[in-house]
Amino acid sequence: MFNATKLGQKLPWNYNRYVLGIIIFAFSCSPSLVSHFYLPYFFRPVSLMLRAITGKMDNAIGEWLYLIIVISLIIKLVKWLMNNNEHFLTAAFWPAQMVKMFNSLLKLYILFELCWGLNYQKNSPAEDFKMQVPTSYSEAQMDSLSLDLIQKMNVTREKLSDSTLKTLEIDLIMEQTKGQFDQIDTDFPFLHYRRSSLKKAAFPSWGDYFGYTAFYQPLTGEAIIRDDLPLLTQPFTVSHEIAHQLGYASETEANFIAFVIGTESKDPLFNYSAQLQLFTYAQLAQLNSIAKRGDFKLFENVIARNKKLLNPKVLADRKQIRDFFSRKQDLQIPGSTQLYNQFLQWNKQAKGIESYNDVLLWALAYKKLSHNK
């Protein structure tokens, strides 16, 4: 039974947890410490161990784990409401409840930071690639990049026969993606990938409501991929999720690793998937810049020009991808995008969801780096 007098005398402070939380927060303020201690001596060994375990299982247990957690939280909330409904108006009730809530949130913070969150604070991978990433791009640069990608897409698409594309399956793409990382780690040893744990989503339709195409599950080490996506997007998507498994937390960094895999690959499928994705970003960035100036005639001319230059097969592929996501957009739960946007901003991605587009800055830097070699 609730005892207001006793509760008012002693609040359930958890001092050990507070000290640990402060230590982790202080540690996270040093990208160098995170990069040189947390990443190689904690995250990578733990992640490798998790992948070694879950990689032997056929099903994506990470989704079931999330489901169990959500159900457990709902049950606890219902029990709490039933057990304490008589005391909601009691002044002495709330101090203890607020302390308990703070303790729980702090526990969640510690778990999240240790399992995954500290990766957001490490040094930029630009240091590993020995390149300087610009802080902005111009409309002219995006126009030039778009035209370059159009040319590359047209050439690459001709290397992909329609009969080959019809035989594509997500299992094959996941296996091929692992091979791409094996091939590239000679030049980029920090991209060495072992103990694969790539899983098809058990509940792919969840992504329609919460707005994701794939995700990394830090509690199980799995990269969970929706198998209902257009297959031409999958090489880039799977590469992106493997990047997360390697500790590239920010969406910009994971997109960049996927771009490097697609660019350096000798497989036209991976070239094409990366080119399609980057062209979407580049064209959108250019059109957004034009729209902000209110030059709608130029806006229409750029779209018309790009359509005219694109191979009809490329146009058809882009339409198929666009139509897929158009059919799904109305299913998304209101507010889910805003919540994810806030989550990214809390983890030092100031632009939130728009940070996905920052891969364009990295692509420009990588292109310059390649030219200087």
Structure description:
By secondary structure, the protein is mainly α. Helices cover 67% and strands 3% of the residues. The protein contains 17 helices and three strands. A three-stranded mixed β-sheet has the order 1-3-2, sandwiched between helices. The model is unreliable at 1-9 and 340-344 (pLDDT under 50).
List the helices and strands and how they pair.
Blueprint: H1 4-9, H2 15-28, H3 31-54, H4 61-84, H5 93-115, H6 126-129, H7 139-159, H8 162-166, H9 170-184, E1 198-200, H10 206-210, E2 214-217, E3 222-225, H11 234-245, H12 251-264, H13 268-293, H14 296-309, H15 312-328, H16 336-346, H17 359-372
Parallel strand pairs: 1-3
Antiparallel strand pairs: 2-3
Helix pairs in contact: 2-5, 7-13, 9-11, 11-12, 12-13, 12-17, 13-14
